[in-house]
């Protein structure tokens, strides 16, 4: 509470003295770049009186302080840090630069270079939201012509100085005429990053990215993956998850496993000792003196008698003789 009151009292003091607190600087743009050919783009061109300027004049700034219109073009597929750094250099190559970026269409790119990963709309939008870009021209030409420069009031073209040739076109460098006219500003490439490098990484780590997308709900059909490949990757994903869990509790697991291992060895040792004792008792009771054999024979005989008892003694057909009674004979 005391801190808040102190701050409020300071603000009231500043306001009473007629001094406003310093405004925080804006660190980002509030809207994307405008689209070439729209009313905004036309109004921007009509604001200024354009005339040819040399690079030396542009370095010092035109006398009427009009912005220098610098043009950079490309495909900008999978917009990355290398693209952003190149556009940053183009924006800062001269004082007061109005940066125009031309982005080639899908049809032109496929015909002269090959398929892109992102569609032209995605590539347009990626460039529009780069903080260094003031205007984006869609469906830009592959070669910058004098007529194109005049149409868009371009003062200079910014690109890296490496000759850019195109298969199928009889040109060793599409910027050759721009360089000869003194309208070219060289930028530097960022080593180790390019669209081709990113695609190479995706191809190299193909299985990993397929597994990631499968776990996120993408179907095998959407990624053009066979059923066998899908099953194999899902299995590998489960195995890796188990490995990660084991690694996270590696120390505790080792201690636990060691305890289990020690206890197991102790139990096995006791079992072996009891087994020897049982075998010794068995041999003592039913050893070589024939006790076991006699018990087996006696048991067999008893079982046989129970199943088939011995026959009863045979009886004569004539009645047994009567015993002589001496008393009867005396009376007679």
UniProtKB/TrEMBL annotation:
The Cytidyltransferase-like domain, residue ranges: 71-201
Native organism taxonomy: Eukaryota, Metazoa, Echinodermata, Eleutherozoa, Asterozoa
PANTHER family: CHOLINE-PHOSPHATE CYTIDYLYLTRANSFERASE (PTHR10739:SF13), CYTIDYLYLTRANSFERASE (PTHR10739)
Assigned protein family: Belongs to the cytidylyltransferase family.
SUPFAM superfamilies: Nucleotidylyl transferase
Presence of keyword Mitochondrion: no
Gene3D superfamilies linked to this entry: HUPs
Pfam families: CTP_transf_like
Region (Disordered): 303-332
GO molecular function: choline-phosphate cytidylyltransferase activity; phosphatidylcholine binding
Associated pathway: Lipid metabolism; Phospholipid metabolism; phosphatidylcholine biosynthesis; phosphatidylcholine from phosphocholine: step 1/2
Keywords: Lipid biosynthesis, Lipid metabolism, Nucleotidyltransferase, Phospholipid biosynthesis, Phospholipid metabolism, Transferase
First-tier enzyme category under EC: transferase
Protein name per UniProt: choline-phosphate cytidylyltransferase
Domain of life: Eukaryota
Entry's EC annotation: 2.7.7.15
